[in-house]
Amino acid sequence: MKLYNVLRFSLLNSVCLLLCAGSAMAQPVALPAQPFSDQVTTPVAQTLKVRQQAQREADAWQAERLKLSAELERLELEQQQLSCLCDDLQQHLDERTLAIAALQRAIAESKRLTDEMLPFLQQSVDQLRQQVAEDLPFLVHERQLRLQRLQQALDDDTVAIGEKFRRTMEALRVETEYGRSVEVIQATLTVDGRSALMNQLRVGRLALFAQSLDGQRSAIYDPVSEQWQLLAGDVNGELQRAIDMGSKHRPVDLLSLPLGKVVAQ
To answer: For every one of its 265 residues, what pLDDT tens digit does the chain have, with 9 covering 90 and above?
Structure first.
């Protein structure tokens, strides 16, 4: 009995030793502890690093915000300028639209006047042509050439109606001036079957006189017979004075000249 107890105690001690050994082997090996200074400085450095990064991001965002704000202001100013420009362009467009409408009305009115004016101008030219043909024979070539050019202008579609009107009125004015002027030219005339260089005096459209250069022969144009007729010799002096007046070699004075008969046409 005593031996049994001794063996049981020995067995229990062995079990206890084995359990203690197993527990000791199961525990991890303890590492050396981190120094205190490292435990303090490491979190501070990490905190500073985080704050520095945050500050850099904040600065970058602030710069970006200022840039975006400046860009926004520029765009707003540009929008205002474009809006003003748009208003001005719209006003100009409205003005141009009104101007175009006015021009279209003027074109329509001009076309109407052209349709009505051309027959009037042609009629005036025809009357001028007839008048030159039936008038005293002075400046015949010059007057016919003027009428020829005027007719060409009337027939030319590229000439504006205003220019056609101006040229017609100019021709009428020139022909009207012939009736209120006195003119002296030298021309070769056939009088009494003899051709000679003579001084020709035109007194408006009333009469056409001629006198030889020596002042010894005088004639008057007869529109009925369309020939020159000799005048009496007592007319030579008065006609010479009239020629001097027409040539502005003598002051204007009263004269007595045979104007012929008034012929009803």
So the answer is: 544 444 455 555 554 444 544 444 444 444 455 565 556 567 777 888 888 888 888 889 988 889 999 999 999 999 999 999 999 999 999 999 999 999 999 888 878 877 888 899 999 999 999 999 989 999 989 999 999 999 999 999 899 888 999 999 999 999 999 988 899 999 899 888 888 999 999 998 889 999 999 989 999 999 888 899 999 888 898 999 999 898 888 887 787 888 765 444 4
Length of the chain: 265
Residue 254 lies in a domain: yes
* Domains held by the chain: number: 1
128 CB-contact burial (10 Å; exposed 0-12 / middle 13-18 / buried 19+) = buried
Residue 211 lies in a domain: yes
Q: What is the pTM of this model?
A: 0.55
Range of the domain at 192: 182-259
**Sign of the C-alpha dihedral computed for residues 143, 144, 149 and 152 taken in this order:** positive
